[in-house]
Design brief:
The structure is a homodimer of 531-residue chains. With 531 residues, chain A is an alpha/beta fold. In chain A, 37% of the residues lie in helices and 19% in strands. In chain A, strands 5-4-3-2-1-14 form a six-stranded mixed sheet, covered by helices on one side. In chain A, strands 6-7-8-9-12-13 form a six-stranded mixed sheet, covered by helices on one side. In chain A, α1 runs parallel beside α2, α5 packs across α6 and α5 packs across α12. Chain A starts with a strand and ends in a 38-residue tail after the last helix. Chains A and B meet through α1, α2, α3, α5 and α8 of A and α1, α2, α3, α5 and α8 of B.
Chain lengths: 531, 531
């Protein structure tokens, strides 16, 4: 059977554009002799629609677009994902169109994504259909994980999916599909959504496996169109994956689409001389071009000499416009004005935070004045620990490294420098510091990052308890301190700027703690609470 | 049948304290001769637990607490709400304990609250049980809205609930329960959660209706304990409700519990001379006492004379400590420092926002230095329209008026002044202004608040489309402008401080729009999109 796979980048709510892209691919597939063309879940609407799913006019508009698409499906079968309002339920559906007739809907049953649980209802799940001589099972989204398509005498399982990218997701996904197609002796056609959509990145990587052998692999992080003959096609090797390269591509796609789809052109950020802002700048220049990125260096009296020189070197490496604006006078003016209130006290986090907040005000002034979009430069390790300033360095329109641990940021930095030194080596090598007081180093209050990140990974991503982590060989005091910091800093994370989701468990949507929370995860979580 | 109702204020995760409160009420109920004592949904754990539901140790700890509670249930039956991990599902359950034995679990089937959809699984729903000569249906939460307890020959329907307060919720809830008990000719025992929990307020207002007649009403917004004889009790009138009084009580309880349960004592805020900050200050003083509240007046060159004098008058009315800190010097220093970047441009929103951000930095300096908690002073009308400054007046630990439209804030202000003039009349009477530029008035860019709020109410709370609202008699240009502003300012609301939920549709949890969103709700929502 000749099946075309259209892996296209749609935009949420851009129904007209999405419709045109779909219709174009239908003609292309027919010309290529395909019997069936498959589009991903949410093709008509884009994904994720959030509250738009509650607007009946939006769902009607999606159906209107579908009807128009159907009028173009002469001589070809089409499987297309869209949200549908069906018997009081809001359902993520696949529709089968054949010879311009809307033949059948298949509604998703299992909803595992947190945001979808709010906006979508569970439907009836997998369905079956004959196209030519082939019997197909049609499965939407994560319904593929249940095995309802088992008993039926199907040749091909078609899965329309919107499966977001996260750390090592592509390789595990290939693995699952390969295994399932081998065990069940069927051909699996996996068609994935593509593109940056709000905080989410869909990586595409659509593929076809026949009885455990890959016979088609579409590109990752790019549009692609493939026609595959499920019977005649020869096996091809599974594309090798590199974690850091994929993360880099995901950041690029997420940032690109956030700007492109929103009609934004220009970004700005504060360049501190540290590795976080260096990585954000490098990605921004890669995506938007040096001419569309502008940076400020905002040194205070606590900034070391090398902070500014390293930052300037990097800006000049990349050819971006930069200004060095010392914050000392503004800091002194705020501090002096506040003397009636805070005069006579000694230097503490108050004074540290004033510096971060003045920087935020200055960066936002640049953004407001000339229409730049401020990029945030916080990483997940410091966000977890609360080693950040609210309304200071937590600000921005989008964070592209906020779901990467510090050690991952270093990996990305080294990847950026793989050919030439874009990020000055000194930025990567020096000991991380917030430089908000004299001689400050991150290591004064945080464990070494390799240790911190190893514990955070277990606690956050793998959902291990304190006891479990201690039993794995980590020091009790350190683990419980980290658990406590994560809990105590939830109030900050609630006000963090939107973060591109690159891990299996980003803070925010699912990892959301109560703001009033007396539960103590240690010493041993079952027996104690301190009230 | 003699049933005791324990309406108590629990704290999320404070399992030991919650357990003690529950055990105390069990003894009290037995002494009062009750056959059964009923606690609300989530009594053991507190509600809402968010991500704690994903921690197996937390669910185990809840069960351990339940087992200890059971050991105290000699000679009395107990119905108690707690989360349970049951056959791979996380279930909001009621447990029946009789003579120290754990007899039966009843798991909630219908999950309508957005946050619960993420963290809870659907269980089997309503169950039945005999206690003495009575047959009871036990229903958890919103399962009461389905009618599975119909066919059964029950005398009494017991509903353990955690039903949050929102605008006019108490009166509609009484109405539903009264009607259901009349139609089905049964006695309904409704036991509700109480207290401020993160952004949510549970109002209590537990009640018993027998065949359409109220026979017991517990207090709203307060703990209460009542023993009711479901057969012998005489009818009592339904307590009258006043919308503004209830909103005021909800704000008080939400603010009180946020501080009390978190161990916070002192609050600070910026007092602008406008009605929003005046209302927040009045509530804060009512809850925390004047000695625990401190305000800053932060005038700029654009502040009118009366702004400071009105604010000072109010602070003196209430006896709170205040300082007048002009921001002009700090503003000039920031603006002057940024000259290399923004010099030579004319005054626009950039300069307006700098003022708001300097105020934020100063208020946070006060908060950081002395441990005050910053209260936000934004209202829902301006949050909807984006008439606010990110990292400026959108900052704070908690907003108690962020889910109230401006017209509701005025109602609350008048209620606060019902006996004596706490808020100077001039603050209530003068035309609202952000005072960020010369002669600025809210009405320069916003429709009059009565009109704006009427449209927002239809668009946000009632989910009407633009066409529907225009057909109801509102001007097309105004309605579509408002719809556009709501969409365009989603990025700001994503970084808004936590807001006490007082309406049926607060921004954030459910009302969350995509950050990339090309869907146009007008001119007529079905037919058009502009891309």
């Amino acid at each position: 059977m000749k099946i075309a796979i259209a892996q296209q980048n749609y935009t949420v709510g851009a129904l007209k554009n999405n419709k045109f892209k779909i219709i174009e691919s239908i003609y292309r597939a027919r010309e290529a002799g395909a019997e069936l063309v498959v589009f991903p879940e949410h093709a008509v609407s884009g994904a994720n629609c959030y509250y738009l799913m509650n607007k009946s006019q939006f769902l009607e508009a999606c159906e209107v677009a579908m009807v128009e698409i159907a009028s173009h499906c002469e001589g070809i079968a089409v499987l297309l994902g869209l949200p549908v309002y069906d018997r009081n339920k809001r359902v993520s559906s696949a529709v089968l169109i054949k010879d311009r007739r809307i033949v059948k809907f298949f509604g998703k049953k299992n909803i595992s994504c947190a945001d979808e649980k709010i906006y979508y209802d569970s439907s009836t799940g997998c369905g079956f259909v004959n196209i030519g001589d082939n019997r197909l099972a049609v499965v939407v989204g994560e319904d593929i994980q249940t095995e309802e398509w088992f008993g039926d005498n199907t040749d091909v399982v078609v899965n329309l999916h919107a499966d977001r990218y996260f750390r090592r997701r592509i390789e595990t996904r290939y693995d699952h599909i390969k295994t399932a197609s081998f065990i069940h002796k069927k051909t699996f056609v996996f068609v994935n959504h593509l593109g940056g959509q709000s905080e989410t990145v869909y990586d595409g990587s659509s593929c076809v496996f026949r009885r455990g052998e890959g016979i088609a692999f579409l590109k990752s992080f790019e549009e692609d169109f493939v026609v595959v003959d499920t019977v005649a096609a020869s096996p091809v090797p599974i594309p090798p994956q590199n974690h850091t390269v994929n993360v880099y591509k995901a950041m690029k796609l997420g940032l690109h689409d956030y700007f492109e789809k929103n009609g934004f052109k220009k970004a700005c950020l504060g360049l501190s001389g540290g590795v976080d802002s260096a990585v954000v700048l490098a990605v921004a220049v890669d995506v938007l071009g040096a001419e569309n990125v502008r940076v400020l260096m905002l040194p205070s009296q606590f900034s070391s000499e090398h902070s500014v020189t390293d930052a300037v070197e990097m800006a000049e490496n990349l050819g971006v416009e930069y200004d060095v604006i010392p914050i000392t006078e503004a800091y002194n003016a705020v501090h002096e004005s506040m003397k009636p209130v805070i005069g006579g006290t000694s230097f503490d986090k108050t004074e540290e935070n004033i510096q971060a907040r003045i920087r935020c005000a200055m960066l936002m002034a640049l953004a407001n004045k000339f229409g730049y979009i401020l990029l945030n430069t916080s990483n997940k390790s410091e966000i977890a620990m609360g080693y950040t300033t609210l309304y200071g360095d937590m600000a921005g329109a989008l964070s592209i490294i906020g779901d990467l641990y510090k050690t991952e940021v270093f990996s990305v930095a080294r990847y950026i420098n793989r050919r030439i030194e874009i990020i000055p080596e000194n930025i990567i090598k020096k000991a991380p510091s917030a430089e908000l007081k004299e001689g400050q180093k991150d290591s004064d209050v945080l464990p070494p990052y390799d240790l911190l990140d190893a514990i955070l990974l277990r606690f956050v991503e793998e959902n291990h308890g304190v006891e479990e982590i201690v039993n794995a060989g980590y020091e009790y005091n350190m683990v419980s301190h980290i658990a406590e910091c994560i809990k105590e800093n939830e109030f900050k994370r609630r006000q963090l700027c939107p973060v591109l989701q690159l891990s299996s468990r980003p803070f925010g949507t699912v990892y959301k703690l109560p703001l009033i929370n007396k539960y103590i995860l240690y010493p041993y979580e079952v027996v104690s609470d301190k009230e």
